[in-house]
Amino acid sequence: MRVPHNVLLLLALVTLTACSGIKEPPREFALPEGDYERGQSTFIALACHQCHSAAGVDQHKPENASVSLELGGESPRITTYAELITSIINPSHRLSHRLTLEESSVDGKSKMKSYNEVMTVQQLVDLVAYLQPQYPVILITYHLFWPYYPASQN
Questions:
Q1: How far is 57 from 146, CA to CA, in rounded Å?
Q2: DSSP code at position 93
Q3: Alpha carbon distance 146, 134 (integer Å)
Q4: Which of 42, 70, 115, 135 has the fewest CB atoms within 10 Å, i.e. is most exposed?
Q5: Distance spanning both ends of the chain, measured CA to CA
Q6: How far apart are CA 4 and CA 150, in angstroms?
Q7: Which of 116, 26, 134, 7 shows the shortest CA–CA distance to 75?
């Protein structure tokens, strides 16, 4: 049986396209585990506590600081590891809904200083290890017939 030249040419083209070197982004990106205590120290060393308050660290807001944002707190939504990493290395990605646009940004960019050239990767993972437990998830109880039979009724 002879294979037509067009079929061989198509097969060669598909094979070469598959080996073109175009790579998909990784599906998972994992950093090493951080240390809670070192993360708390990093929070203070990088002066995060000048604009943010967090569990175990008092805020030391200088007079010229225009932002005061408490980190952590209960939420029905999970604050993921990736969201915390992104918020630190790219704070303009999503500005806090707890502050007005004027309080949190200048020309649409976050007022948070960029730490990308100052912070080490170890400091980053330690900082996230410190912040992650401060976002506990609360479970919301839904009742099947809530509008008709309130939960307090027996």
A1: 41
A2: S
A3: 31
A4: 70
A5: 80
A6: 74
A7: 134
Q: Tell me the two tokens of residue 69.
A: 């944002």
Output the pLDDT for position 20.
47
Note whether 88 and 124 are within 8 A (CB). yes
What is d(CA 26, CA 21) in angstroms, rounded to the nearest whole number? 14
**Pure H helices in the chain:** 5-18, 36-45, 81-89, 101-104, 121-131
For helices 121-131 and 36-45, what crossing angle results, to 10°? 110
Distance CA 72, CA 84 (A): 11
pLDDT digits (tens, 9 = 90+) for 113-133: 889 999 999 999 999 999 988
Residue among 153, 27, 44, 39 nearest 82 (CA): 27
Q: How far apart are CA 34 and CA 130, in angstroms?
A: 8
Whole-prediction pTM: 0.65
How large is the C-alpha radius of gyration of the chain? 25
